[in-house]
Specification:
Layout: H1 15-26, E1 51-56, E2 59-65, E3 74-79, E4 82-89, E5 108-115, E6 125-130, E7 133-138
Antiparallel strand pairs: 1-2, 2-7, 3-4, 4-5, 6-7
């Protein structure tokens, strides 16, 4: 038998990850031996935290799933009407000492920007972080949201 260890999880990777890998290989951008951190980051491979945005009463809530991120590695800014959450998830593993069989979690910097209704002050924004879930409350922002208006689509043909 071959002395090289076999991957016991071979074939367990989900279809989307496999399709993305095959697209990258087919485009000639990466080889099978390329480490994740050396691969080019694009929309398919960048880590973007999953986010829920919802209203409760007059308040708007933004929840981001940030497992493995420490509060000291987070930054929340408000510039105009744009709320930006940025930070970094650091790997605690020595990349030279471990051999991954499956690696689906992304590490490194992330940034998520959300346009808020006009007129939000930084005093209206508060944030809490617990067990990997960041919840940002924007007081009164849901009340400022106008209902959507339908835009008519016309045909160019006449």
């Amino acid at each position: 038998m071959d002395n090289e260890r076999r991957n016991p999880f071979h074939g367990v990777v989900d279809a989307i990850s496999e399709w993305n890998r095959m697209r990258e290989l087919g485009a000639g951008r990466i080889g099978p031996e390329t480490r994740q951190e050396d691969r080019p980051r694009n929309h398919a491979t960048a880590w973007v935290p999953t986010t829920d945005i919802f209203a409760r009463g007059a308040d708007l809530f933004v929840r981001l799933s940030l497992s493995g991120v420490y509060p000291e590695d987070l930054e929340i800014t408000l510039s105009g009407d744009v709320l930006t959450v940025s930070g970094e998830r650091r790997s605690e593993l020595d990349e030279e000492e471990v051999r991954f069989y499956v690696r689906e979690r992304y590490y490194g910097a992330f940034r998520r920007s959300i346009t808020l209704p006009a007129g939000v002050d930084e005093g209206d924004v508060s944030a809490e972080f617990e067990r990997g879930l960041l919840e940002i409350t924007i007081q009164g922002a849901a009340a400022a949201v106008d209902p959507p208006r339908r835009i008519e689509v016309r045909s160019r043909a006449g």
